[in-house]
């Protein structure tokens, strides 16, 4: 047997705690034995622009980043980051509630309040921590969380960290949500958690109707708008803004790791008592704050996104063009019409999904391979996420690559 397969010997015959990963180790080995490049250990050796990089020695078009608005190479964003690095150093070495709140964190929160036209904004070190922190802190013992079954991992983990009862309902199913809400015992606190864009299939939620039903049943509402910020809605505030129901959302969660083009997370709210969160939210208190250069890039990017109308229009054009082109070439897609900047291409199984992923990489195209448990209904997906900086020519090139790879692998 392979040295790596040998179980670790522990006193008293106790199990090796790694043995639970054996099925996954085996699945990876089987996949790589087919001569495939490992889809989960790609290295970007050089990044040339928001849409191009050198990976595995090849110049590659990037169609699997969350750089929706292409802000990562914006000259003003880069200049702000450099200046903050010079002026404030490389890191804060402390918590937001102790020595870790710099001028830049405040400015970033001011930019968010303006962007969303809301009273309060709280910046976290990642979007993951924003969900973890807000959800676990506001919904505690005796409270109920009613959430879409396809919610992001950070939402599920936030539920787990808190002590509330967790009641999932079928994806985007308003009646199922209402039934769950009506079954909650009288007097219990209720939080409904939804997402604007669901990132696996790139579909949006019927937020207006869902939020109306949530409110009729006395629930507070949290919406994760990670994949819509900067792009969807007249001011880029997200799907709730687009559907005219942002005023009824109690908490918007977002991230800097997508349209904003850096790293960090946030919650914005009009709740009058919101500021108390800074003292009671453990994933905010017990971790170091973001480096000054990061909050400076975020604040600059957020302010520029307030005037991103032309870029938004071009991103929609890209989304429509890619969706129509893939559909007409016979690929099966996650949505009938393009609903966001994510177009998911459904693969028949993991093996052919990995083969297609590799064929595309060899063509010079990077997309995201997604598989269970991250995906709904055990699907293997090639997730394409578009950028406002993709040119119409690049989208044409991408379609040609999909066509050749799809024929070579036998998917179309
Ligand atoms: N929410 C959703 C819906 C997400 O897709 C993600 C990241 N993929 C996050 C939260 C977490 O964001 P971050 O990368 O800032 O941790």
TrEMBL record:
InterPro entries documented for this protein: Aminotrans_II_pyridoxalP_BS, Aminotransferase_I/II_large, AON_synthase_class-II, PyrdxlP-dep_Trfase, PyrdxlP-dep_Trfase_major, PyrdxlP-dep_Trfase_small
The keyword Transferase appears for this protein: yes
Cofactor(s), by name: pyridoxal 5'-phosphate
Keywords: Aminotransferase, Pyridoxal phosphate, Transferase
Record-level Gene Ontology MF annotations: transaminase activity
Record flagged with keyword Ribosomal protein: no
Protein name from the UniProt record: Aminotransferase class I/II-fold pyridoxal phosphate-dependent enzyme
Organism per entry: Novosphingobium tardum
